[in-house]
């Protein structure tokens, strides 16, 4: 059990062509979305700025992600991965997740 530990997430912190992302310490707290991950699972783009607020006690995070270019794996290797028990996202599943993670930017 723990107290605190909400997730701060900056959904507008996305890379733009030819423009460097601002340093994390220059992002405004007023621009972040605060999520209580103790009571709700959440999906977000881990490439955008995020941090965990201070907390007391023990807590664990389980992180799932899909590597860029996963769809380039050969069908034979996809079959091996699935045979080993790895979930393999379909294009429609990835589209749905992107809508959740990116909102209107999907």
Protein described:
There is one protein chain. With 106 residues, the protein is an alpha+beta fold. It is 20% helix and 14% strand. The strands form two sheets. A three-stranded antiparallel beta sheet has the order 3-2-4, with no helix packed on it. It has a two-stranded antiparallel sheet with strand order 1-5. It is globular.
Keywords:
alpha+beta, 2 helices, two-stranded antiparallel ribbon, 106 residues
Structural class: alpha+beta
Number of strands: 5
Main sheet: strand order: 3-2-4
Give the integer mean of the pLDDT values. Answer: 87
Using only CA atoms, what is the Rg? Answer: 17 Å
Instruction: Enumerate how many helices there are, as a single number.
Output: 2
Estimated helix fraction: 10-25%
In terms of DSSP E residues, the strand content is 5-15%
Major sheet description: 3 strands, antiparallel
Helix and strand sequence: EEEEEHH
The end-to-end distance, rounded to whole angstroms, is 35 Å
Q: Which segments are poorly predicted (pLDDT under 50) over 5 or more consecutive residues?
A: none
Principal-axis shape: globular
